[in-house]
Structures are given as C-alpha cells and as structure tokens.
Specification:
With 164 residues, this protein is α+β, with helices and mostly antiparallel strands. It is built from 5 helices and 7 strands; from the N terminus they run E-H-H-E-E-E-H-E-H-E-E-H. The chain starts with 14 loop residues before the first strand and ends with a helix.
C-alpha cells in the first residue's frame, strides 16, 4: 500500500488501493470443494470403484463450489483513489459507482464489522454511512485487512475536510 500524500500536487485521482472480497469469506465453499475432490482422488488411488454417474456428480459439485466462490470474487471490486472510492460490479456487464470524499467529509463515523472468525482470519466489512444514518450506508464487504483500509479512509476523509 502506498502512503497518502497530505498535499497532493494536483487534483488528478491516484489509485491508492484496489480491493476484492477476500477468499477467506468463501472458506466453506473452498473447503467443501477441495474435500470432495480429495475424497474422489483418495478413493481412486485406493482402487475403490465408484459408479461413473456418482463420480461426475460429486466432481461437478466440487467444481461448482470452487468456481462460484471465484466468480463471486470477480464480480465486485473496490478501487480507492485519493479523491473517491470506485465500486465496480460485474464481469460482462459492468457498472461503476463513484463515491467522492468531498461529501464523505460530513460522515460522523466509519464502522468496522468483524465476527470472531473474521477477526481471526483478518477480514471484515467497513461500513460508511452516506447520509449520516446507518440505514443509508455504503459497505466495503469482506475485505482483507479492514483496519488498514479503515485507517486509510479516515485519512482521506480528514484530508477532504481540511480542503473544505
């Protein structure tokens, strides 16, 4: 991660961080997929015959579990610039949403949400209320190192407040 310059030399947006949902958020899907594939491989090397239909079904379930987790990760991306947050959704049909730090200068608080397993695995959700209420909130969901991202966003919002 690059350091944030307190006084940027121009108003051009500079990419500071690009985030995707963490693979840790899909831990169960990955474990299920790999355990099923490992089980099929172990049965094959032990010489235990499995009916081909069952073999294909179990292999398909394992591949779908792993592929669905990876596709879900690719669908959503967050780019944090020195002036805005860009949310990019989609793979084929892409939509982009920009959240500028200028309006965020009025945000009273930013919240970090982590359950116990998320704290252990160091991922979580950063919640940013857009209009001062948590009902209208923007979330950076299931990102790695959320405390670092929270600190970066607080610095960027403070910089936007000082410019105003």
């Amino acid at each position: 991660m690059r350091e944030l310059n307190e006084e940027p030399d121009n108003d051009e947006a500079k990419l500071l961080m690009s985030l995707r949902r963490s693979r840790k958020a899909y831990f169960i899907e990955y474990i299920c997929g790999f355990v099923l594939l490992l089980l099929l491989t172990a049965l094959y090397f032990k010489g235990i015959d499995i009916p081909p239909g069952v073999n294909y079904i179990v292999s398909g379930i394992a591949i779908i579990a792993i592929a669905s987790a990876e596709i879900s990760r690719q669908v959503l991306r967050y780019n944090i610039y020195n002036t805005k947050i860009e949310v990019i959704k989609g793979v084929i049909k892409i939509s982009r949403k920009n959240i500028n730090f200028h309006p965020l200068a009025f945000v009273p608080d930013i919240t970090l949400k982590q359950s116990l397993p998320q704290r252990i695995l160091n991922y979580g959700t950063v919640d940013i209320p857009l209009s001062g209420s948590h009902t209208d909130a923007f979330e950076l969901k299931d990102i790695d190192q959320p405390a670092v991202v929270l600190e970066l966003l607080e610095k960027l919002i403070d910089t936007a407040r000082k410019k105003k």
